Amino acid sequence: PSRKVNPADFIEKPNPMSKIHKVIGVVSGKGGVGKSMVTSMLAVLLNRRGNHTAILDADVTGPSIPKAFGLKQKAMGSEFGLLPVKTNTGIDVMSVNLLLEDETAPVVWRGPVIANTVKQFWTDVIWTDVDYLFVDMPPGTGDVPLTVFQSIPLDGIVIVTSPQELVSMIVAKAVNMAKMMNVPIIGIVENMSYVKCPDCGKAIPVFGESHVDEIAAKFGLKVLCKCPIDPELAKNCDVGLAELANAPWLEAAADVVEKHNK
Ligand code: ADP
Questions:
Q1: Is 168 annotated as a binding residue?
Q2: Where, in this chain's numbering, is ATP bound (predicted)?
Q3: Whether residue 232 has its Cβ less than 6 Å from ligand 1
Q4: CA of 34 to the centre of ligand 1 (A)
């Protein structure tokens, strides 16, 4: 006799001391499209608006969140669970890089170990009075992101794409994963859409014309914003000053995330 498997059965309970209002997953089809930048800046923008934001860095093999915020200290444990590290402006962060002695050591773990680590960031970390917890998901739609999807109760997801990619396929896969878990897709952020000429202000589509509008329409999704390649932003994120960075084009995406109700 077969029993229908309900994906929701896999969802894990958070640490009993955690209090989280909304959990937002940020996904992408592959690495390097700016998923961590979008995660960091959405947390920064919503924090600037007076929300308490937090980031669960589930991108275990490429954890770039601590670097974007210049976090040097290690996460500490307590009797009741692991404590996230606070950034200068009070954003709570948990990442493998805050636990490893040597953060340059490559994480060469197998999928189940990675997935389990992320699960523990949900079940063991004390997330205190968080309005928006952003989950920087492992890239792609393989085993690891799927397990993460199944173990953390997401209230919505943001898809990050770039014009170089096969956006249609990535969006189709993300839509399938989201449907399976009954999680709404908040919308698509297109990153690296163009570069603005510093002399004449003209937008140059470095990676070719964007197809994100057609694809979003096909799936009935919203395009939240199109972000330019911004050298100033890259510099700030790469030296640990994400909190000082400006990302005006992401404000529209932040508006939608802030108002999102599952
Ligand atoms: P992912 O998380 O998808 O692997 P990252 O967010 O780490 O990608 O971005 C990869 C690199 O590109 C980083 O050095 C980041 O600072 C840079 N980057 C991302 N988005 C932009 C942008 N809009 N303008 C300039 N640099 C960017």
A1: no
A2: 29-36
A3: no
A4: 4
Query: Global pTM?
Result: 0.95
- Measured CA to CA, the distance from residue 112 to residue 229 in angstroms comes to 35
156 is in an annotated binding site: no
pLDDT tens digits for range 175-211: 998 988 899 999 999 999 999 998 999 999 998 888 9
Of 37, 56, 170, 194, which is best to mutate to test ligand 1, by the most ligand atoms within 8 angstroms of its C-beta?
Answer: 37
Domain ranges in the chain are 14-160+232-257
ipTM above 0.95, yes or no: yes
Structure tokens at 143: 């085993």
30 annotated binding-site participant: yes
* Cβ(58)–Cβ(66) below 8 Å: no
* Nearest one of 254, 247, 258, 244 to 89, comparing CA atoms: 244
Query: Which ligand 1 atom is the nearest neighbour of the CA of 31?
Result: 4
